[in-house]
Design a protein that fits this description.
single chain, 245 residues, alpha+beta, Chitinase A, domain 3, 2 domains, 5-stranded antiparallel beta sheet, 3-stranded antiparallel beta sheet, 7 helices, 43% helix, flat
């Protein structure tokens, strides 16, 4: 007989097999997905695809207001550099790739140690290029991690959000997360491009605010579902759910 007492579960539904070990992030992600799947079933949403059922549930459950012109203007005035046209950066990076089966916590520790080492390195030493050549999981490692001059559209959106629209030169103070893994990033030079005009980027500002509102609404909805559910072996912090990071 299989002992199910040690399995993480949501309302009695196991989140993993008895012999399957999950890191905390993956476990929370499965728990959030299961909460939403069960909520879709409870509301009579019948779809063989879990993803489609959850999408239909969220369209029904999340009410996201349209941002006002005043809110868009305030956001733009606070972040004008985010909407600059033609901004380009000359970048280098060291990629610690997240691959199936990798110990994410150990990988993060190695990446953070590398970040600290490179931030402390003497500028004339080219320690960054040497580290990229030895450690980076990206083909650019052979060129010292050099990505050349890149624009926003040349990068994964989650990567671009963390490196563009700033004024930092040198090794960035925090790891940059992307779908590929963890990056130690060095900005060698910045070309700010053309200054934005609000009227030209108003639609992009509104899209950003709508996305922020949707994320907040999803966090609140997950918090509500978690409060009504019986959770075993998993702790959900609605402010840190991997579904909305």
């Amino acid at each position: 007989m299989i002992d199910t007492t040690s399995l993480a579960s949501v309302n009695g539904v196991a989140l993993h097999a008895p012999d399957e070990a999950l890191d905390a992030t993956t476990l929370r992600q499965r728990a959030c997905t299961e909460l939403l799947r069960q909520a879709a079933v409870a509301q009579g949403i019948d779809n063989p695809s879990t993803g489609d059922a959850i999408e239909a549930l969220l369209e029904r459950a999340l009410q996201v207001p349209e941002p006002s012109d005043e809110a868009c203007r305030r956001h733009f005035d606070a972040h004008p550099q985010t909407y600059g046209r033609g901004e380009r950066l000359h970048l280098r990076h060291v990629l610690f790739a997240v691959t199936p089966g990798v110990d994410v916590q150990a990988l993060r520790q190695r990446a953070e140690a590398m970040l600290f080492e490179l931030r402390c390195a003497a500028p004339e030493s080219d320690a960054f290029g040497q580290a990229a050549a030895h450690w980076s999981n990206c083909p650019t490692g052979a060129a010292g991690g050099d990505l050349g001059w890149v624009g926003r559209d040349d990068c994964a959106p989650e990567f671009a959000r963390e490196v563009f629209g700033q004024d930092t030169i040198g090794v960035l103070p925090r790891l940059v997360h992307s779908r590929f893994g963890l990056h130690v990033v060095e900005v060698r030079a910045r070309d700010a491009g053309a200054a934005p005009v609000f009227a030209e980027v108003r639609a992009a500002v509104a899209l950003t605010l709508r996305q922020q509102a949707w994320v907040n609404a999803l966090r609140q909805y997950l918090q509500l579902l978690a409060g009504q559910a019986r959770l075993e072996g998993v702790s959900l912090d609605a402010a840190d759910t991997p579904l909305v990071q």
